[in-house]
Prior knowledge:
- By secondary structure, the protein is α/β, with parallel strands linked by helices.
- The protein contains 7 helices and 20 strands.
Amino acid sequence: MKDYTVVNPVFSDKISIVEEDDLVNAENDTAAAKQLIENDLALALRVNNVLGYDDNGEPPSFAEGLDAKNVIDAINKLFTQGNENKQTLVDNLIAMGIQASTDDTWGTLLDKVLDMTDTSNDTVTAAALLAGYTAHNASGDPITGTMPNKGAWTANTTGNGNVPIPAGHHNGQGYVSGAGAYAKGVVDADARTNTNSANYKNGYNAGVTATKKGTAGAGDVLAGKTFTNTGSVGASGTMPNRGAWTANTTGNSNVTIPAGYHNGSGYVSGAGAYNKGVSDADGRPNVNSANYKAGYNQGYEAGKSAGNCTILRFNAGTLEGNSSSHRSDFNVDCTGKSRVEFDYCGYANSASLQLDVYVGNKFNNNANADWYGNPWEWSDATKIATIDASGNSVRHASINIPNGKKWLSFYITNNHNQYAGVEIRNFRMT
């Protein structure tokens, strides 16, 4: 077997085939196979020249500037590169304030670019352009900017005057400090008087506190008056001004004096309490009072002059054996009466002396009854009071008389061996 090499393969659409019985052209038995190989090589060369790379690996002449392996790859890359360039152009136009979109045709985008190069409407001047930058004016002539670039320019205030801002472009990071003007304002404010300022008022209050001490509270100062103490200045008092306050007593209870200032001309009248005392004294017996004694004496004299017995003595005589001596000396008709009152006292040796009071409707004066047994022998006698008459002080008795009784009688018991008795004064029935 030997190698078959073709330097310049030529494509042919005719293939000669040798028949088996063609002995004359037998030497051409491999001609068909050779031509087929040559056709393959020729076609491959054509494809490499149009769609691919040569055998040396270098790109074909149609793909200069493109990293493409074949025509289809080159076409795709050109399409992609065109879209990318179009997007870049649209982004730049939008950044310059010109409406644009990738949906615009290349012709539309080109017109928008050409409009940008028309400087006839431009108003820029060198003074309006930052120094170091160039542009074209309305005539299309190039100009160089002269506007100073101040950047982050700063300055300080020194008082209440102005700080000039220099001409030029300021980048927004600069400032004018107010610290100097503030400090100057503080110094000037401290050096002058402003009565409306909090500082002045604080100083005033501090001065008052330092020189005017006080312990008074609002309740210690009359209402409507102002005062100063350690905690405040010009505080208002709250003490009520009672002036010449007056009041009246009504009995033996207290009259409360209200809190506040009293000017010394007020008073509490005792008339009400006095009159109530007189009324209460007149309404009860007080045998030790001058009034009672005066009434007693007057009653005594009046009773005597009227023929009534107003002083009665019941004498208990000498004891006989072990029996008590008793005597009844006073029996009174009490028909129609409901109450009896009298003053009484013991006399002589009147220790342990008892006075009994009876009522009844039938009186039997049995002589023997004066000394022995029941002294009265009443069929319906009822004791209505037992009075301790011991001692010789004057006391008062007031006894209700049961309804329908006719006779009132007194009975004395003395448990001593000495003469004693009870004296009744100012006797009256109502």
